[in-house]
Design a protein that fits this description.
Largest sheet: 8 strands, mixed
Shape: globular
CATH class of one domain: Alpha Beta
Distance between the termini: 20 Å
Helix content: 25-40%
Structural class: alpha/beta
Order of helices and strands: HHEHEHEHEHEEHHEHEHHHHEHHEEH
Bound molecules: glutamine
CATH topology of one domain: Amidase signature (AS) enzymes
CATH superfamily of one domain: Amidase signature (AS) domain
Strand content: 5-15%
CATH architecture of one domain: Alpha-Beta Complex
Radius of gyration: 21 Å
Length: 493
């Protein structure tokens, strides 16, 4: 029998249905692999006892013929999702020891579908970052290495632990969140598939907030089909989140094999960035050829406000973050550092509890929202956001079904290599992904090849609002044409 941790989510589901193995065996195989992979630092909390209890309950339901769509399938949960009775910290010291009294809607939906929780997964602090280096638990080490080198690379971020866990086969799939690229960029860096659904497709209830108008949950998985299975379980209406839409969730898995015949795929000329490596340009070209060969029409389009997206994002996101993070005051959750009086206690708690990047965002956000600067920065960024959204609306109104772009401007970089002198160097990772959050649209990253150093590269497809199905269909065409990337050898085990 093949190694159970090498299976895709769909293969594991089918194997359970055929009784080739039990949910308990499948879960135990992952727990054993997790123990051997601790050097990757992908999990910040392993919950093996809970996992085995959930797996046994799944086996009982399978025996009774009551299996849910993800019955018995072990997954990891980004530490941004509140899990009842299980420590949740957003990988920040300020939430040290916080044990939620409630379950996020996303995880509740997954458990309802029968999934098994392996543990809580490392991420950038409050999901702010592109390399998983801002985590209070330390960086995640990517399972990928450059050919002939054992230098430690980042898995991307902020959902770096989710991407690393899936690539390292210590979770069949994982939850993740994306505010500016945090699902798609780590997926691209690790040869995994990640989809950020349309804003409002997934409930934000019980997910630690970063920038509420941009945050969306989504999955990171081994294949396009697995991502479709995960999103189908995660998505859906929720009365507890007013921005979550009351729309039925389509059969995403059925959309995977739909093909792209007759679709019009837009190629935005503004995504051809100066200084972009020739390999990325070449991959993008290949993506066009693959989609064309599968029957799509390739159309050059223009999204003229693209270049303003990153600067506008770095005003809107910190502004919302500064407001959201005001609640961490040492009174209600997590860390409290005693002080002379209450103000001193607030100040000491926040000074000690937040890391450098989070403090930087709070300061920028407070500044752009302050009287006298609000109009010049925040209001202007909001207007730019409207223009970015309009660019996409015009493209879709002209008959474009989806847009193809590179997922990231480079492959993975080394731990400690970027952003220490200039944070903008790190922010530039998201040039191709932030536009999608600003417009509230769905975007998927699909592995499309390896670069000259042997590291994965991804392509991104951007869809119409609430048309994740086309992304699964087109994503599958790319996956099939590129050939599934062989996972990295388990040097850590
Ligand atoms: N890298 C971006 C940031 O640091 C996006 C993070 C995210 O999507 N959560 O804000």
């Amino acid at each position: 029998m093949t190694n159970l941790t090498d299976l895709t989510l769909a293969e594991a589901r089918d194997g359970l249905a055929k009784k080739d193995f039990s949910a308990r065996e499948l879960t135990q195989a992952h727990i054993d692999a997790m123990e051997k992979a601790r050097d990757l630092n992908a999990y910040v909390l392993e919950t093996p006892d809970q996992a085995l209890a959930m797996a046994e309950a799944s086996d009982a339901r399978i025996a009774k013929g009551e299996a849910g769509p993800l019955e018995g399938l072990p997954i990891g949960v980004k530490d941004l999702f509140c899990t009842k009775g299980v420590r949740t910290t957003a990988c920040s010291k300020i939430l040290d020891g916080f044990v939620p009294a409630y379950e996020s809607t996303i995880t509740a939906n997954l458990w309802q579908a029968g999934a098994v929780m392996l543990g809580k997964i490392n991420c950038d602090e409050f999901a702010m970052g592109s390399s998983n280096e801002t985590s209070a638990y330390g960086p995640v080490v990517s399972p990928w290495r450059r050919e002939g080198s054992d230098a430690k690379l980042v898995p991307g971020g902020s959902s770096g632990g989710s991407a690393a866990a899936v690539a390292a086969r210590i979770a069949l799939a994982a939850t993740a969140t994306d505010t500016g690229g945090s699902i798609r960029q780590p997926a691209a860096f690790t040869g995994t598939v990640g989809i950020k659904p349309t804003y409002g497709r997934c409930s934000r209830w019980g997910t630690v907030a970063f920038a509420s108008s941009l945050d969306q949950a989504g999955p990171i998985a081994k294949t396009v089909r697995d991502a479709a299975m995960m999103l189908a379980a995660m998505a859906g209406p929720d009365a507890k989140d007013a921005t979550c839409v009351d729309m039925p969730v389509p059969d995403y898995e059925a959309a995977v094999d739909r093909g792209v015949k007759g679709l019009r795929i837009g190629i935005p000329k503004e995504y051809r960035m100066p200084g972009m490596p020739a390999e990325i340009e070449g991959l993008w070209e290949k993506g066009r050829d693959w989609l064309r060969a599968a029957g799509a029409e390739i159309v050059e389009i223009s999204l003229p406000h693209t270049r303003y997206a990153l600067p506008a994002y770095y005003i809107v996101a910190p502004a919302e973050a500064s407001s959201n993070l005001a609640r961490y005051d040492g009174v209600r959750y997590g860390l409290r550092v005693p002080g002379r009086d209450i103000v001193d206690m607030y100040e000491k708690t926040r000074a000690e509890g937040f890391g450098r990047e989070v403090k930087r965002r709070i300061m920028i956000g407070t500044y752009v929202l302050s009287a006298g600067y609000y109009d010049a920065y925040y209001l202007r960024a909001q207007k730019i956001r409207t223009l970015i959204k309009r660019d996409f609306e015009e493209a879709y109104a002209s008959g474009i079904d989806a847009i193809l772009t590179p997922a990231t401007p480079s492959s993975a970089f080394g731990i400690g290599e970027k952003g220490s002198a200039d944070p903008v160097e790190m922010y530039l990772n998201d040039v191709f992904t932030v536009t999608v959050n600003m417009a509230g649209l769905p975007g998927i990253a699909v592995p499309a090849g390896l670069d000259a150093q042997g590291l994965p590269l991804g392509l991104q497809l951007i869809g119409r609002a609430f048309d994740e199905e086309t992304l699964f269909a087109a994503g599958r065409v790319i996956e099939e044409a590129a050939g599934r990337i062989a996972p990295p050898p388990a040097w850590w085990a």
